[in-house]
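hi!! sorry for the late reply, been swamped w classes. u asked for the two structures so here they r. pasted raw, havent cleaned anything up. first the sequence of the first protein and right below it the tokens
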Amino acid sequence: MTAMLQRNPIQFTVLLMGTLFFYNPLYGQCGAGYVEIDEECYWEKDIFFLQGFIDGSKDFLDIDMDDNEDGIISPLELGVQTWSGEGRLTSLFCS
């Protein structure tokens, strides 16, 4: 990398800026094992768990949980949830 900087500083700068842009979490990039929903990163397996719970309980779910009124209860609309700053589901209350 040092040789590249010495030979062509402009090319090195463009490469560095591109890397910072595409791997910066501020630009919608979630890490491996995470999924982006509404510009937030959530642990994929937690979302799959919630979706599985919804799929197995469709006849019993209260449609009032459908916050955006699209007729579908999405994983983030199920019950009352608490998420950690790292995008992990820490509690779920469904009544």
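now the second protein. again sequence first, tokens right under
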Amino acid sequence: MKRGINYEAWVFRKCCCTRTGYLLSIGIRIDRALCISGASLVVNSSWKNPSGEWHVGYKLVYELFTDTLTSRLKKERKKKWDEKHQEAIAEAVKCLDEFDKKHVKVEDANLKRAREDLQNKVDFLRKQADGYDDKGPVIDAVVWHDGELWRVALDTQS
């Protein structure tokens, strides 16, 4: 159980870690809460919920889209990511080159550590490109039982 500021207790009811696409669900009895993503959630007062229990979770957007749309979005996001990533690599290489020009002989222990840190940054950034894996955006979900049916609301704004 976890307590938040001005919130009733949050009771963790179930958690699916199988990567099968089920919602992570937390049963809560509140009118206002933080979603899994950290966004603020305000429950619509017109929603009928006799039990007052809301299940807050998340869903990966790509799991809701067609394969064609997912493929297109991944390509677009990868292109943007590559541009930013190449800029970061270029900046790191520039810093390392400037350091090498400024410090021709690196014998001091602090300078050795500083150069090693710069080199590690370059190496890390270059290695990151190989491990790129776009899981896609995450959207918050609220699930509740209205007395007759299970309902779900997805917050696409957060």
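hope this helps!! also noticed smth abt the second:
The helical segments are 67-102, 109-130.
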